[in-house]
TrEMBL record:
InterPro entries: TPR-like_helical_dom_sf (IPR011990), TPR_rpt (IPR019734), Ycf3 (IPR050498). Pfam families: TPR_11 (PF13414), TPR_16 (PF13432), TPR_8 (PF13181). SMART domains: TPR. PANTHER family: TETRATRICOPEPTIDE REPEAT PROTEIN 6, UDP-N-ACETYLGLUCOSAMINE--PEPTIDE N-ACETYLGLUCOSAMINYLTRANSFERASE SPINDLY-RELATED. Keywords: Repeat, Signal, TPR repeat. Gene3D superfamilies: Tetratricopeptide repeat domain (1.25.40.10). Residues 1-22 form the signal peptide. TPR repeats lie at residues 26-59, 60-93, 94-127, 128-161, 162-195, 196-229, 230-263, 334-367, 368-401. This is Tetratricopeptide repeat protein.
Amino acid sequence: MKRLLLPLGTLLLAGFTLTASAQQTAVDFFENGIGKSKSGDFTGALQAFSMAITMNPENAPSYYNRGLAKANLKDHRGAILDYDRAIELNGKDAMAYLSRGVSKSKQEDHRAALLDFSRAIELNPDDPQAYYNRGVSRSRIDQYRGALADFTKTLELDPANVQVYYARGITKQKLNDFSSSLADFTKVIDMTPKRSQAYAGRGVSKVELNDFTGAIADLNKAIELSPEDAESFFYRGFAKGKLEEYKGALADYDRSIALKKDNYKAYYGRGFCRSKLGDQKGALLDFTQSIDMNNTNSDTKVVYNTRVTRPILDNLRNRVQDRDRINELSPERSEAYFSRGVSKNKQGDQKGAIADLSKSIELNPTYAEAYFSRGLIKSAQGDQRGAITDCNDAIKLNPRYGEAFYVRGLIKYSLGDENSGCLDLSKAGEMGYSPAYKVISDICN
């Protein structure tokens, strides 16, 4: 079995097992995919693994490795579908469960990810990465004690993993075990002295333990290493306030607010310092801001607003090129109507363009390009449902029509159907329409 380390966490490329029925070309495509993955050409790797799957659709490693390629392109929905198939074909592959769990966690589906990580641990109980990933998922759904146990197990298996010491320290803070967290943050600092988050974490724990002088020393270092960290300024201001250094605290609260304007606690702290320094008018303004901002943060309902608004949809859709290629003219001349419709659209005559494209479809109901081009125009006119219908027909006629999957995905996403839209974009990329991966990276993660 051939294994290869990829940039995506610690996931490995699985080896290709040649079955008796597999053709040599399937092996060639698979090996080509391995090579492209090694060089970071994940789009090329995806296409190679797709060809291997076409030649031998029952080989689990092909699906697994294509899933890894998609995951590296941030297409986690598409990756999950490939991992599903890999697991159907080989339910004992711990790496497939681990990889699927990673992609599920990237989609914020932490409970489902937790189940995959648990299955990976059952199959390979000595893999520290699976315990670490499960600990992260548990912490995301507030299962802090379970997360703590997982992080501790990870360190038993991999005691040099600095990232896990930091995660365990944060988890101990969540459990109010500030005293014990100090050792974990100190370990991180010893191993990586330039890591600002470790100083900040230790400083926060010292604040909670009332060691304000020690906290200030740690937070000074955190700010030196990361001067844009609003939280470090906030906690340093709090510690200075506790030591009655109100002028210094005021300056820290000013900086914290400048970096993070929605921290109502910082307004409260600054108001307190202003009051102590005799600026009652300023203190009242800050206290009022703290009260109003807190109410806004806790009571205002979040209204969904898709990231693909109508102007963005128009911009992304309009980048798709018409498939207006010279074809042999059939007796019914549907190709001529099609080309004339495309030309009319380019001249701004959308009504005339749709009439010609509809006539082209009437004369040749299997003309996938005509459906797709008409769908583009309908979308530009705001008829998104009609555009989806035309894309559906184009895809039925040509199941490998990457541009049609792409446009349909954009429209579905813009109408609020994010999951289905992103799956269509994934399919577009799988069919070779590579611009889909830029959109997936921007909106599907």
